[in-house]
């Protein structure tokens, strides 16, 4: 809602101001003669300043193109000395202007195209609408800020991070990407895997370790993992530690119980944080139910993968929303280096609207 | 409708006297011999304890850190009587973690679990008064428990009116049956309060199809500032102050059921 107060000599003049400034749909919420004898009129209009031709995208966004654009933006930012701080990336951007006028129908359509369930779509549209932004991107970003929590995994998390998830969600490559980010950021990493029994797992871990020029230490069970974690504590090993785990079916009670023992023991041993790696290429209901099971293990945030396959954020958003999970990172490229982008309200809004804030091009002064 | 058990004080905008009203309303209800819990729901910048001059050994931060059960973090605050140091009324306080900002980092699931714990606790009390944080973010909306009565504090400032409107809009979208009432603070007089209330509710009626009733208004009163500065309850320090009387009246009227027959258009959605 926009609220403006006009002071005029009489009601007619005040109404002229109201119509001119706020348009014919404005309503008068208050009018009275003030102490100076002038007419004081307060008028309101729901939503935005009038726009005769709301700027709509020609078509709904291609999420793959958005991911590519995001990667280009990241590379551009990282090539600039002013933007090398990883921490800065994790911060929501300053107020933005995409040039796309706010339009509830547009945002609802964009959320529909992302397969966002109707209840969540309506809540996001309502939040976007309530906050009075003229710009669609800014409004949707603000709605995400209201509705979701964003907690990117820092470059060098203080406590070890244990990646858990469904089969095929991309835990191992996500660990490698987190490790690559930490290495690029100037730290050392300590990689552990409990996924030692699965066929090919050792080869996969070894291959990633080779690429990162570091070894991946195996831990076949909680006892071995505890020994490694205790060893880190005893030697005051300050390396950033990531732990890969065997995928589980969370609806299989024995598999779930085994992972629960592992995560619980690791938390006791070294305050290890379980982090859910969730593929976007799944059914929203199934992913939500699975995420609910993982939440019981103490998971409080997730990394989204395979968005290039899913091309929709709906399932990830639903899983996070229904289980109160924070959004941490999303996978933007199969490559290890800079393969993860921190999620924040603006990133989500950009992916959904397929738009980008307008950057001022650097000017070169002629001499 | 029976007298409300869960009472939330909200505003949208900060600095409109929300925490002061929460504290004083708790005092007023306690003075009416009601069993009251005051909960500091401003998780990012808790300061109910500061207004009351309390230094509780345990608070919500202790609960979140696992050092205490929520019941153990409750402190009883006894208001001294005007005549002497004893015989005053008392109410319970669940303080936040003043000034630390530690609670602002809670996840939505953690906040939801606090809301559930609060609902469980409410069974022991006649009223639970929650001082919500300013703003519209998810921590505020998550603490808004269904079935509560929400008092939205507003002043005549345009920013206060628009933020209060935005809060009411989100609240009513979250819960179509929400019991939302308006409290006008810093009112110069009754007419001024009514103009402020009407500006807000005219917008609510037109744009949202709802008509939240006026719960009361608090006149501008310098004695409020004096009581806050002395970290002393205004009902004790200045019982005859205009603001004290206004909050007592607000508390009395809260205990009276709302009339069933609403005015034309009132509480009707989709108008």
What does this structure look like?
Chain A is α/β, with parallel strands linked by helices and 367 residues long. Chain A is built from 14 helices and 11 strands. Chain A folds into 3 domains: 2-45, no CATH class; 63-147, no CATH class; 161-342, P-loop containing nucleotide triphosphate hydrolases (Rossmann fold, 3-Layer(aba) Sandwich). Chain A has helices spanning 11-22, 63-79, 86-90, 104-113, 118-130, 136-147, 171-184, 201-212, 222-234, 253-270, 284-295, 307-310, 314-323, 345-353, and strands spanning 2-8, 27-33, 39-45, 161-165, 189-193, 216-218, 240-244, 273-279, 301-305, 326-331, 340-342. In chain A, α8 links the parallel β5 (189-193) and β6 (216-218). In chain A, α5 (118-130) crosses α6. The longest helix of chain A has 18 residues, at 253-270. Chain B has a single domain, classed as P-loop containing nucleotide triphosphate hydrolases (Rossmann fold, 3-Layer(aba) Sandwich). The longest helix of chain B is centred in the last third of the chain and has 19 residues, at 190-208. Chain B is 39% helix and 18% strand. Chain B is an alpha/beta fold and 271 residues long. In chain B, α1 packs across α10. The model of chain B is unreliable at 260-271 (pLDDT under 50). Chain B contains 10 helices and 8 strands. The chains are: A alpha/beta (367), B alpha/beta (271).
Task: Give the SSE map.
The complex is a heterodimer of chains A (367) and B (271).
Chain A: E1 2-8, H1 11-22, E2 27-33, E3 39-45, H2 63-79, H3 86-90, H4 104-113, H5 118-130, H6 136-147, E4 161-165, H7 171-184, E5 189-193, H8 201-212, E6 216-218, H9 222-234, E7 240-244, H10 253-270, E8 273-279, H11 284-295, E9 301-305, H12 307-310, H13 314-323, E10 326-331, E11 340-342, H14 345-353
Parallel strand pairs in A: 4-7, 4-8, 5-6, 5-7, 8-9, 9-10
Antiparallel strand pairs in A: 1-3, 2-3, 10-11
Helix pairs in contact in A: 2-14, 4-5, 5-6, 6-14, 7-8, 9-10, 11-13
Chain B: E1 6-10, H1 18-31, E2 36-41, H2 48-52, H3 60-64, E3 74-78, E4 90-94, H4 108-121, E5 127-132, H5 138-143, E6 149-154, H6 158-174, E7 179-187, H7 190-208, E8 214-219, H8 222-229, H9 234-237, H10 242-254
Parallel strand pairs in B: 1-5, 1-6, 2-4, 2-5, 6-7, 7-8
Antiparallel strand pairs in B: 3-4
